[in-house]
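Repro:
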Amino acid sequence: MKKCIQLIVLVILMSGCNSETKQTDIATSAAADYFQVKDPVEKLTGGVRMIPITTSKGTFRVWTKRVGNNPKIKLLMLHGGPGGTHEFFECFDSYLPAEGIEYIYYDQLESYYSDQPNDSSLWTTEHFVEEVEQVRKALGLNKDNFYLLGQSWGGMLAMEYALKYQDNLKGLVISNMMASIPEYNKYAQEVLGPQMDPAVLKEIKDMEARGDFTNPKYEALVTEHYYTKHVLRMPVEQWPEPVMRVFKHLSKNIYVYMQGYSEFGVTGNASIKNWDRSKDIQKISVPTLVIGATYDTMDPKYMEWMSTQVKKGRFLLCPNGSHLSQFDDQKTYIPGLVKFMKDVDQGSF
């Protein structure tokens, strides 16, 4: 079973990264079939809405799904990747409805249930910030109800959005994402890497030096010795079904272009590798929750520091969690998230 799951991960992350195959029609058809969207542009069906997004390359549609109804607390969630899906947050279904919190799933452009133009000219933080703003307007979110949660790459996007549009926000959640890619890479290489078996680390480093990322052994080593320690602290065969769906649905072209071949540091696009907002986050004045985890790929001490740099910050440490701490430390993550939103709403933050 473990080998089968690792094979799925390998096929998704490693195969076809240079393929020109278009996935737009497949993804749109899957979304329409799965959610029975009669009008795939605007029709609300079970909370699902395909929102048109205007870009420099034309108009495309992104998938959203609203759960619950709370006029004062509306949580829009930005998934990781880039190229991941809303399925990273499906565990919220077991908790947030009982708390009376409205939350909105959202697949960014290029992600599985949204359109996939496969155009790298749109693969920029600037594009995605404007995309989030268009989604916000379409959903009627505003400073009286709009909470934005970004996890991993979504956290990077959430920071960028807040630095430009924080007047629209009621609260911000930065989950498992540092404000500096160079610092993230440094932590991976100087702190987490040396925790591996030296022989394994050397083999991984040698393959990276050769650019041998498509070697199945590379992903197998990273999965066994890094992912299960710092991405999701469970044996691979026990990873929750929504997480496995994310891997199955991952849009590999944008992921490799922007992030690189693995979570063991960023090896993708230069604009992402050099991204650093450490000196800018002090401009964020909206109430902000920063969520870190002891075993995360992101330095929890750095993330605690981030919470002191924003004007109104709070830090939540998931002591048993890793990069996907919403899954492996739910007892800390979920109550901390809920408390933050309710404290802000009640004026007691």
